[in-house]
Write a structure and sequence with these properties.
308 residues, alpha/beta, Cobalt-precorrin-4 Transmethylase, domain 1, 3 domains, five-stranded parallel sheet, globular
């Protein structure tokens, strides 16, 4: 096969089809080294499957997936006949040794989830860890991710974000977890079930404050919907009508306060009465969410001033 695509008129649909055909044929012809391939699959729109993902699944010796019935539809769409085997949270302990034996036999093993990027709120972490520890190649074939898709369309800051996955289903545990996340100086991204969306939004407003947020559902599908607003407004809206389909909640970061040296000194004074300089600095730094080194410098200056 030639390393160059055939000549076609630039800017024409025929040219695009020709180049896509050339690239998928090239990918299918490339040798695939033994190893564990983590292949991202569409979160809704089948056309979001990358050419490399199609070629990898087509050339793999076996594809492990969460639900063979679900994944068979995807593979059939691209005429892929690679054998499918289940790998999910209920059989992972049993299947993992089998996968590791296949890797030891220099086989090409692909792992996919029902949708999106494997391991993101899906099984596979222990398999990847054990495969890497055994010296096998672990290769990512990147692609769709509901968390990143929601983040980018949310209108919230994207320079720093924290993916928190699914929150606990029970209200008490959910609020405790949110209290742990409240001070993180980044946009927060959650997955949520449609039946719990309104309750979770209400808890988010109560525990994090009435921040700006977005609720994205059915991303890339026919009825894709992204609603933006404050957490309380969104909670009220979804309480009136529960959403359908997969839901991602994106919450803006907390407002950053300007912490002055005077505020740090005020917080240090009572703590220094019972703690060492180092421990007092750590406590105040954690409380005010400022660098420990800065608090320590202020504490040293305060001590010097007290001695003079």
């Amino acid at each position: 096969m030639s390393d160059e695509p055939p000549e076609t008129p630039k800017g024409s649909t025929t040219a695009t089809v020709g180049r896509v055909t050339f690239e998928i044929e090239r990918q299918l012809a490339l040798p695939l080294a033994p190893g564990l391939y983590l292949v991202s699959t569409p979160i809704g729109h089948l056309a979001d499957m990358s050419l490399r993902a199609v070629a990898t699944l087509a050339r793999a010796d076996v594809v492990y997936c969460e639900d063979t019935r679900h994944s068979r539809t995807l593979l059939a769409h691209y005429a892929i006949r690679t054998p499918l085997r289940p790998y999910h949270e209920h059989n992972a302990e049993e299947q993992r040794p089998r996968v590791l034996r296949e890797l030891a036999d220099d086989r090409v093993v692909a792992l996919i989830s029902d949708a999106g990027t494997p391991l993101i709120s899906d099984p596979g972490f222990k398999l990847v860890r054990d495969a890497a520890a055994a010296g096998h190649q672990v290769i990512a074939v990147p692609g769709p991710s509901a968390a990143l898709a929601a983040l980018t369309v949310s209108g919230q800051p994207t320079d720093a974000f924290f993916f928190a996955g699914f929150l606990p289903a029970k209200e008490g545990a959910r609020k405790s977890r949110l209290a742990e996340l409240a001070a993180i100086p980044a946009t927060l991204v959650f997955f949520e079930a449609p039946t719990r969306t309104a309750a979770t939004l209400a808890d988010l407003a109560q525990e994090l404050g009435n921040r700006e947020a977005a609720v994205a559902r059915e991303l890339t599908k026919l009825h894709e919907d992204v609603r933006r607003g404050t957490l309380s407004d969104l909670a009220q809206g979804f309480a009136a009508e529960a959403p359908k389909g997969e839901v991602v909640i994106v919450v803006g970061p907390p407002e950053q306060r300007d912490i002055s040296d005077a505020m740090i000194e005020e917080s240090l004074a009572p703590v220094l009465e019972s703690l060492s300089l180092r421990d007092a600095s750590r406590v105040v730094a954690d409380t005010l969410k400022v660098p420990k080194a800065r608090v320590y410098d202020v504490a040293l200056a305060l001590k010097r001033r007290d001695r003079s």
